[in-house]
Amino acid sequence: EAQVTQNPRYLITVTGKKLTVTCSQNMNHEYMSWYRQDPGLGLRQIYYSMNVEVTDKGDVPEGYKVSRKEKRNFPLILESPSPNQTSLYFCASSLGQVADTQYFGPGTRLTVL
Amino acid sequence: GQSLEQPSEVTAVEGAIVQINCTYQTSGFYGLSWYQQHDGGAPTFLSYNALDGLEETGRFSSFLSRSDSYGYLLLQELQMKDSASYFCAVRDSNSGYALNFGKGTSLLVTP
């Protein structure tokens, strides 16, 4: 089944404790991205990657890192999480940079205390 | 910069037709997409318009007018399961073709 998976689905952590949210897709997509969703603000792009070893900042990259060492994986790293990073995070992938359809993962609900 | 405007909430009756409008301002418009999201779920793709006109997919249609920087999503024969949030999103060639989302329209379908 074609899908985007994220882990963990739920995470409660404390300020400053490094964490990684994994994202994997099995559709051989080149383009992957991370979004955060907050009430009243819609989906905002954090980082995106056009292919292996090619990443770039989205609208709200501060406090986040990403890497794209393999085509299928695009982890999101929070080196020192803060409470304002409490949010619902979605990973997404698409065939190419301008493909009309993005496929979203199930989401990761992160709470930083 | 860019911005997208869509109504925050819409209510409609089961079986009716509802139109959700989206206006946008962007310097490098490449296409307008629509996504549906049920509470707590992942957004799912509904429709995409790169050219002016109407695209129809079953009960859902989407329209684009690039000259007016305007589009809409039309939902026909509304069903209770259509209660969800609907997001318009613009792809902008001036920002790496990133997909920029509006804040979403919450649609409530009532019996």
Describe the secondary-structure layout.
The complex is a heterodimer of chains A (113) and B (111).
Chain A (H helix, E strand, L loop, with lengths): L3 E4 L2 E4 L5 E7 L5 E8 L3 E10 L2 E4 L7 E2 L9 E3 L8 E8 L8 E2 L3 E5 L1
Parallel strand pairs in A: 2-11
Antiparallel strand pairs in A: 1-3, 3-8, 4-5, 4-9, 5-6, 7-8, 9-10, 9-11
Chain B lengths: L2 E3 L3 E5 L4 E8 L3 E9 L6 E6 L3 E5 L2 E6 L4 E6 L8 E9 L5 E4 L3 E6 L1
Parallel strand pairs in B: 2-11
Antiparallel strand pairs in B: 1-3, 3-8, 4-5, 4-9, 6-7, 7-8, 9-10, 9-11
Tell me about this structure.
The complex is a heterodimer of chains A (113) and B (111). With 113 residues, chain A is mainly beta. In chain A, 0% of the residues lie in helices and 50% in strands. Chain A has strands at residues 4-7, 10-13, 19-25, 31-38, 42-51, 54-57, 65-66, 76-78, 87-94, 103-104, 108-112. In chain A, strands 2, 4, 5, 6, 9, 10 and 11 form a seven-stranded mixed beta sheet that branches. Chain A has a four-stranded antiparallel beta sheet with strand order 1-3-8-7, with no helix packed on it. In chain A, a hairpin with a 2-residue loop joins strand 5 and strand 6 (54-57). The radius of gyration of chain B is 13 Å and the shape is globular. In chain B, a hairpin with a 2-residue loop joins strand 6 (53-57) and strand 7. Chain B has 111 residues and is an all-beta fold. At the A-B interface, strand 5 and strand 10 of A face strand 4, strand 5, strand 9 and strand 10 of B.
